[in-house]
Amino acid sequence: MSFFDTDFHCHVLPGIDDGAANIEVSLELIRMQAQQGVKNIVATPHYRMHSQSVQHFLKKRKAAYELVMENRFDGMPNIMLASEIALERNLSELNDIEQLGNTSMNTLLLELPFEPYRRWMVEEIEEISYKTKMQIIVAHLDRYVDIYDTRDYNDILSIPDAIFQFNLSAFSKRSSKKLIKRLIKEDYPILFGTDCHNLSSRKPNFDVLARSMKKYEPHMLVERLFE
Ligand SMILES: [Fe+2]
What we know:
Order of helices and strands: EHEEHEEEHEHEHEHH
Low-confidence stretches: none
Radius of gyration: 17 Å
Bound molecules: fe (ii) ion
Number of strands: 9
Number of domains: 1
Strand content: 15-25%
Mean pLDDT: 97
Largest sheet: 6 strands, parallel
Structural class: alpha/beta
C-alpha cells in the first residue's frame, strides 16, 4: 500500500450521494480504477451535517459497501470507508465526527465550501483537528484557484499538520498545476485522488498520477499514513 496505488478521494459507493448511481456503475468505476493501478480505494461519499445524522449516514454507507462486497470480482482493490465532510460553522461540535473518517488510517477528509474564503473556515478545521486528534486532509485544494487569492491559500496552508489533497484533473489546468508545483517546492504534504463520480464527465483518471508525479517522494506526513 502506497501513495502511488491509493485513491484517496472518490464516490464509487452505489446510491449514497451524487456518485455511482447504482451497483453496475459502481463496479465499472472500481474496475477502471483497478486497471489504472489503484490497489486501495478510500471511498468518500459526501456527508452534510444538516441533511442527515451521522448514524443514518453510517448505516447507508455500510449497506452500499456490503452491496459492493457481494459483487466483488477478482483483483478488486481493497476498499476503506470514509467520507467527504462538508465544512460548515460549528461542524466541530458534531458528535461522532470521528466515525466519518477513515478509521484505519486515522484521517478525516474535509471539503471547504465553494464560496469566498473566510477566516472561520480555518478556525473550524483547527478545532476539529484538536478535538478528534485525527489527521486532517483538506479536499481538492485545486478547486478554489478562481475564488481564492494567495493570502487565502496561505491561511489554509498554515493549518498545522494538515495534508492537502488535489484532484488529478488539476494537472490539466494551468493555474491548479501551478499550485501543485508551489506546494511541492515548499515541501507541503500533498496527496491525490480521482474524485470520480460517474462514467462520463467525472470518471476515474488515476493513471494521471504515475504520469505526472514520476519522481516524486511523498512527504513524511503522508508516508506515515501507510505505516
Ligand atoms: Fe468529492
